[in-house]
Design the sequence.
């Protein structure tokens, strides 16, 4: 059975056809009777009068049918008009009410704006991260990234990185694939030279990439397999729609123009459709044939062997399944192909399993930390909305209580309860939609901010506010509008005039105060939960920030240039870097400068190390020692401590003495319980003479904040490194202040050293940690924002309820004051109410946080989801805020004037 | 002379005019019209009722059940403010129409 308040919707159905027919027939009957009377009074006989009346009426059957049809149409239209009128008058009434209480209206609209805005913002993010397929890709449900498992150190690792020959195995041997393409992970590329040089995001792909993804060009043509067939391919480049607009203004003559990438000049052949970012979600500006890989100087250590070496995993494989083939079938085929190809390759796990990972975010087996945190924040946004709804409901209840007399009178005047219910709902829905409009502003700013600050490595296109977000917001507004209006509406259905008139505006309403306190409690509990989440994320972020990397990443500027591919001969490169080192030392603000071989933080290369007397190094599989060539200042510059022995000195380098330092982890594993100092290690081959271990360094991270186990390092004098490793990096230690400020001077210094250089890659080492910090930053920032808003909204709610309570009990308080109650007693009376709610909120909220801690455990870093400091801190904050919110009304109560209190009402 | 058929759209205006003098039930409207048309208009009563219903649907006319002087139940129709305004507009239109068309039709031949 429907509640009475909803029945008006179905009034149309209640007005039955029979009534219309009866009414019409009644009218026809009367018409005939009067007509016949009139004719007879003019002398007609009854028979003739009846015949004449009928003649004038027209053919009875058709006439009556016409009248019935017109009457039915009339009733339908009138019913519709009536409903519109009712709603319109309700809207006008509600608007009037809103205008009459601008403060109240503003409060509610703002609360809704916060609640709906938080959800709209998070919806925008989650929609992009999780709900959408890669843009412009045909049939994405049938497209997969290939992943392989690898057992290492007893754990099963999953990796989507493969070597080129492994890709070819997949492409040629898995019959279940209709197509398989490869792509590198997005790289920063330098376009142009000198002052015009700038960085863009580039991906190198196989020629069948676009065919595999099923995407066509919007201008020109996309790559074909011949464009990227090893060893040379074609000097072409495909650009994204956004890059086309940005760099070429969307002009047609962009096709055929030349883009200079370091030493390579590539011809633009085509433009991808708008929004296309490949099979993933990272922003991409250009797609290059994989054959440009070598000439662009990427991982130049690999040299010309990239198409054949299985030692480097540097590409991802994206494959499309043939129709009717299951993933289980291709998983088996791909596993066989992979194991076959890798057989005999050092460091590979013969039990590797290969499996397909959908490109659809929702169907992935693992989610990136960003997605996990964003989803959690989506849930948090819903909590914020719940708090906002509870608060608005509370405000509406309070106002309805103030209006109860008016409501009683309206009821007495015959306004139906259904109508009254509808009025409440219309009002709250109107408020919700006003809030939704403001929420769109919140979503716009919030979305823009999140894209820029927290999720900048996602491909965003279009405004943060699109049709999907608008529909979501409208739905949310309708839902919260009805939800918040329903409670006061249903509470006031039970009112009747006599009860309203009997208890004055101040009395009664006990059950309503209980409802309000319950709502307040709910807000408090949710706020506590959110604040606990905030605390946990902030502490995680702190802990991550405190990780000791073995390198002072935030004080080190690293600079490198791709000189070899730019055509510099090897001796000149060596000289050039020496020159840079000297010039860098002379820069103001530079504490140390040193040269290193390769990039010791970021990516690094394993090397073969032989220790006489050991068949193989007792290191975990797949974790060869990392070899770094260094100069004397290296350890002081990077801030790596020597825990035993000494550093490499200039004399060592000059004398050509073969010396080496190893990291603690390596020393512990290779020479357990023994002193590593003085030991002999051989690099690369047994025939090479011993390098004597002269020192042990602390453990150093390989390139990320969080690493499963410390890697093993070997440091040797710079020119004793691998013969083919000529890549050099200049490391500069900044004396004080932010290292970022040193980037531009270093760049200028390099540009002034020689002419026509490629764009130098200058960065602060910690910059690459930003990606890793992002999930915690995202969590801490958004949890903080939501938690803060929740607490604010709840505090305002508490304030309003206590104020209302004080207002209601003014008379009683006045009497108490008149009877000589001490201000302290009254203060305690009022404060105790607020604090009781706060204490109950803290208690319940912390219990829920304790129970729900498991949900976030995986997203935290080295902090228990039951961290006592966080829990204690939240309890203190909430109690203090509750006290602050209750104090103003409590002081108002002390000042209660007995006389006015008694006279009021 | 034989009665002339009504021009399109005139019936509505006539009904509104009838009701301008006060609420009437259906038969009163037909009687009012018969009296003034003097049998010159060709009009079926059933068509008149349908016109009234249509006016009602447009909310130019409102209806209410009431009792006649002989204590019979009848549906009484009255003009709404919108109906009154509509009538005024229609009358103006008709006057202009007749002045124009009449002027043309009755002008002396000029060849």
Sequence:
């Amino acid at each position: 059975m429907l509640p009475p308040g909803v029945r008006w919707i179905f009034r149309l159905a209640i007005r039955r056809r029979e009534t219309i027919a009866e009414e019409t027939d009644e009218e026809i009957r009367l018409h005939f009777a009067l007509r016949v009377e009139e004719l007879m009074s003019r002398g007609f006989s009854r028979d003739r009068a009846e015949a004449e009346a009928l003649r004038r009426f027209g053919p009875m059957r058709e006439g009556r049918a016409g009248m019935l049809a017109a009457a039915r149409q009339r009733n339908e239209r009138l019913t519709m008009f009536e409903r519109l009128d009712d709603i319109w008058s309700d809207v006008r009434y509600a608007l009037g009410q809103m205008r009459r209480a601008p403060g109240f209206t503003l409060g509610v609209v703002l609360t809704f704006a916060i609640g709906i805005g938080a959800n709209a913002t998070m919806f925008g993010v989650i929609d992009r991260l999780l709900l959408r397929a890669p843009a412009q890709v045909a049939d994405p449900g049938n497209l997969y990234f290939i992943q392989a498992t690898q057992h290492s150190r007893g754990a099963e690792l999953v990796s989507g990185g493969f070597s080129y020959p492994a890709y070819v195995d997949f492409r040629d041997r898995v019959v279940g694939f209709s197509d398989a393409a490869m792509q590198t992970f997005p790289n920063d590329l330098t376009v142009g030279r000198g002052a015009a040089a700038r960085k863009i995001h580039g991906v190198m792909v196989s020629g069948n990439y676009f065919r595999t993804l099923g995407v066509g060009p919007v201008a020109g043509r996309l790559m074909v397999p011949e464009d990227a067939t090893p060893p040379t391919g074609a000097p072409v480049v495909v650009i994204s729609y956004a890059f086309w607009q940005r760099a070429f203004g969307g002009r047609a003559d962009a096709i055929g123009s030349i883009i200079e990438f370091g030493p390579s000049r590539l011809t633009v052949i085509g433009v991808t459709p708008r929004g296309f970012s490949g099979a993933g979600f990272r922003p991409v500006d250009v797609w290059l044939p994989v054959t440009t890989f070598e000439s662009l100087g990427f991982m130049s250590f690999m040299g010309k062997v990239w198409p054949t070496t299985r030692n480097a995993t540097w590409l991802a494989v994206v494959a499309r399944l043939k129709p009717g083939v299951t993933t289980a079938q291709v998983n088996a085929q791909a596993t066989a192909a992979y194991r076959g190809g890798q057989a005999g390759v050092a460091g590979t796990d013969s039990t590797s399993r290969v499996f397909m990972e959908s490109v659809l975010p929702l169907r992935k087996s693992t989610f990136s930390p960003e997605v996990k945190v964003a989803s959690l924040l989506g849930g948090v946004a819903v909590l914020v909305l719940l708090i906002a709804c509870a608060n608005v409901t509370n405000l509406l209840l309070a106002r309805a209580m103030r209006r109860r007399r008016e409501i009683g009178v309206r009821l007495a005047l015959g306004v139906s309860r259904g109508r009254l219910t509808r009025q409440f709902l219309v009002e709250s829905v109107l408020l919700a939609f006003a809030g939704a409009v403001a929420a769109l502003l919140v979503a716009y700013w919030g979305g823009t901010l999140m894209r820029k600050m927290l999720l900048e490595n996602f491909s965003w296109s279009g405004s943060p506010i699109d049709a999907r977000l608008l529909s979501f917001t409208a739905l949310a507004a309708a839902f919260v509008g009805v939800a918040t209006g329903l409670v006061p509406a249903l509470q006031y259905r039970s009112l009747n005039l006599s009860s309203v008139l009997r208890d004055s505006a101040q009395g009664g309403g006990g059950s309503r105060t209980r409802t309000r306190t319950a709502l307040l409690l709910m807000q408090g509990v949710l706020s506590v939960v959110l604040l606990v989440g905030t605390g946990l994320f902030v502490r995680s972020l702190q802990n991550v920030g405190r990780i000791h990397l073995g390198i002072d990443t935030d004080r080190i500027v690293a600079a490198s240039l791709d000189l070899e591919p730019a055509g510099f001969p090897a001796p000149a490169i060596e000289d050039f870097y020496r020159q840079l080192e000297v010039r860098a030392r002379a820069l103001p603000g530079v504490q140390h400068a040193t040269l290193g071989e390769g990039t010791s933080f970021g990516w690094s290369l394993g090397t073969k190390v032989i220790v006489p007397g050991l068949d193989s190094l007792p290191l975990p599989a797949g974790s060869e020692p990392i070899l770094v060539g260094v100069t004397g200042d290296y350890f002081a510059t990077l801030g790596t401590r020597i825990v035993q022995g000494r550093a490499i000195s200039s004399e060592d380098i000059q004398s050509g003495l073969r010396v080496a330092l190893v990291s603690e982890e390596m020393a512990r594993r290779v020479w357990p319980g023994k002193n590593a100092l003085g030991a002999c290690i051989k690099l690369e081959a047994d025939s090479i003479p011993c390098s004597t271990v002269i020192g042990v360094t602390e453990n150093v991270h390989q390139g990320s904040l969080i690493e499963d186990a410390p890697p093993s390092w070997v440091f040797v004098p710079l020119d004793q490194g691998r013969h083919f490793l000529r890549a050099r990096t200049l490391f500069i230690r900044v004396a004080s202040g932010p290292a970022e400020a040193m980037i531009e001077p270093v760049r200028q210094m390099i540009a002034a050293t020689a002419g026509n250089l490629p764009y130098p890659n200058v960065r602060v080492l910690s910059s690459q940690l930003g990606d890793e910090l992002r999930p915690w930053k995202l969590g801490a920032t958004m949890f903080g924002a939501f938690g803060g808003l929740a607490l604010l909204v709840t505090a305002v709610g508490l304030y309003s309820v206590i104020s209302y309570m004080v207002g209601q009990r003014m008379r009683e308080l006045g009497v108490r004051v008149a009877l000589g109650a001490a201000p302290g007693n009254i203060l305690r009376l009022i404060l105790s109410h607020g604090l009781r709610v706060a204490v109950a909120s803290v208690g319940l909220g912390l219990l829920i946080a304790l129970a729900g801690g498991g949900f976030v455990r995986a997203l935290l870093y080295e902090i228990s989801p039951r961290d006592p400091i966080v829990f204690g801190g939240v309890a203190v904050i909430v109690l203090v805020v509750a006290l602050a919110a209750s104090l103003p009304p409590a002081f108002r109560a002390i000042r209660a004037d007995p006389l006015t209190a008694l006279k009021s009402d | 002379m034989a009665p002339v058929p009504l021009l399109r759209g005139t019936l509505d205006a006539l009904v509104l005019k009838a009701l301008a003098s006060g609420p009437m039930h259906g038969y009163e409207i037909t009687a009012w019209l018969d009296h003034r048309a003097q049998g010159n208009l060709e009009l079926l009563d059933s068509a008149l009722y349908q016109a009234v219903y249509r006016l009602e649907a447009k909310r130019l006319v409102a209806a209410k059940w009431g009792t006649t002087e002989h204590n019979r139940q009848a549906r009484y129709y009255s003009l709404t403010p919108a109906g009154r305004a509509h009538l005024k507009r229609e009358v103006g239109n008709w006057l202009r129409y007749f002045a124009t068309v009449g002027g043309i039709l009755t002008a002396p031949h000029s060849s």
Remarks:
- Strands of chain B lie at 4-5, 24-25, 41-42, 61-67, 73-79.
- The first strand of chain B starts at residue 4 and ends at 5.
- The interface with chain A takes residues 25-27, 30-31, 44-47, 49-50, 53-54, 56-59, 68, 72-75 of chain B (CB under 8 Å).
